[in-house]
Amino acid sequence: MNTHYKTYVAGHQGMVGSxxxxxxxxxxxxxxxxxxxxELDLSNQAAVRTFFEIExxxxxxxxxxxxxxxxxxxxxxxxxxxxxxxxEANVIHEAWRVGVRQLxxxxxxxxxxxxxxxxxxxxxLLTGELEETNEPYAxxxxxxxxxxESYNRQYGQSHDVDYRSVMPTNLYGPNDNYxxxxxxxxxxLIRRFHExxxxxxxxxxxxxxxxxxxxxxxxxxxxxxxxxxxNLDKAIYGAHTKPMQSHVNVGFGEDITIRELAEAVxxxxxxxxxxEFDTSKPDGAPRKLMDSSLLNSLGWEAKISLDEGLTRAYExxxxxxxxxxx
Length: 326
Hints:
326 residues, globular
């Protein structure tokens, strides 16, 4: 990678964006551009245009997004589709307008059909109905993939545009959102088990049946994969991906049930009460396991185990979670 490139990381205060900055810095990258939401509202086209005209970065990591778990997606569908569509449309278009050649868009495994064959391969995209609870978010993320592919298709030769997309599995780790209602499953479980331990509660209730299977990837592994993919030679990347379906899955390679996950989190937190399941709450998709063989063929594999990752995540929660994620 060229350590002298000016690199803009959109969403640098989030879990993924902050991990990408750590990964870049580990590789000697020092010319990193960031903006807080207060400094730059990425849903404001005029503001984004002005930013790109001033900064003119060489690379863009588009990690900014409105994200959340099942409850948040169910409760705020309009916000999820609108904000994500606006962010990605503004950033991708304005990056192209000022001549940014390299951009990496971060999507989500929810882009795949609810009943996609497992493990899910990249070519499962748009082959079936989406999971109802997060369909608006998924549609927005699919639009981001297609934006990248469309700009490549129209401007790849004439402007040497090279915009890529990665689809991470469920992520967790430092700087996660520990909100009691709007967080993803691992940070929600960490907070719930910790509070139950402190209160000496006899039981913790988990949404759903506990039977759905999910795959989890530590966020620093994800960031490492992002930097790896961004800096692959264009010919190598193009040889492994299809022109009209050029996104790449980023997963750990194994999945577990939500019940097994809850037990693992309880063990890390050292909560010794009962774990109960509220089957009146939605489960979401029955299984979501990514096929990451394409990424593996491009020279990258996950390194951090779930047990090690959960231990690190709980340490982060004890230091930052209670004070920063009320």
